């Protein structure tokens, strides 16, 4: 569209777009008026230490797409440039990229921030929310996002199997097709689309199905961090857990945890919170979840937020050993809370079994919940008799 309208298209090198200050200066010097970015790249640019508002003063339209939008960055952009607007763009390459848009400006930003939507389909494109049987879901009920219209591609080159799997016959309009995006979403009562994220970003934690993007949105809504990414990990015992990577090195982890514990069920609160200078990116500028999935976690990042205090007696040493085995955290401070280290009721049961087996003491789950700190639990158990098997 840019070339058809007589415009000049700028495609910059990876070295340039990964250097926020150089990229901003390039945008200004080249007189670029329409800017298209992934939210992650734009956040790097807008929040770089040497960012100057004048660098983007020539921009008329900012388009963000390819991943979940960062609401806080949109707000900052509009506060710096109140006469401009942002397009929240949604659409896979199979549907010629931008199929759904939401225009955000100073007048509707507050309502957008309170309920983030991707908007409405562009002319000649349609979007549906369908269940697994390809039945239309009413407004408010979630399902998979399907797209149809003249923007759909013919399919995948030399991949007939994939084409058949993702492009299906339209159940309502014979002769047309639908593309299964793999994204979960819903329609609002006002007819706008909400996108929850990839269906393959759903994971199971302790039997509960969890949408990682929902946790990410909660973290961002805290106002404590600029951007984040939550990934599913497995510890050495084979137990799944969540790790949150945040880009503010000065973030108060205790404060962030407190916010998440108030706003999320306990199984959705990440065990690990990792501070990074910036999130790793893939070649196309999106957050590299695969790289974060193998990032080596340290002690603090494993969940500990208390200053380390060593065990002072035999019982404390035994409890410390049991906790380290169950939690897969080394070392564990005797003043740290079991549940802040990623513990939960299933792991607590493993502690009870180990206490019964190794210490020959009977401990109930309610008692453990009352004394989730090694030092307190040790003092409590010291007053109890051994069971004597």
Descriptive notes:
It is a single chain. This protein is an alpha+beta fold. It folds into four domains: 1-90, Rossmann fold (3-Layer(aba) Sandwich); 117-199, Luciferase, domain 3 (Roll); 206-292, GMP Synthetase, Chain A, domain 3 (2-Layer Sandwich), CATH 3.30.300; 314-382, ACP-like (Non-ribosomal Peptide Synthetase Peptidyl Carrier Protein, Chain A, Orthogonal Bundle), CATH 1.10.1200.10. It has 13 helices and 15 strands. The protein has helices spanning 14-17, 20-29, 39-46, 71-80, 109-114, 160-166, 212-221, 253-263, 289-292, 314-327, 345-358, 365-370, 374-382, and strands at 34-37, 61-65, 85-90, 100-104, 120-121, 125-130, 143-149, 167-169, 177-187, 193-198, 202-205, 208-211, 228-234, 240-246, 272-275. A five-stranded mixed sheet has the order 1-2-3-4-5. Helix 2 packs across helix 3 (39-46), helix 10 (314-327) crosses helix 11 and helix 10 packs across helix 13 (374-382). The longest helix has 14 residues, at 314-327.
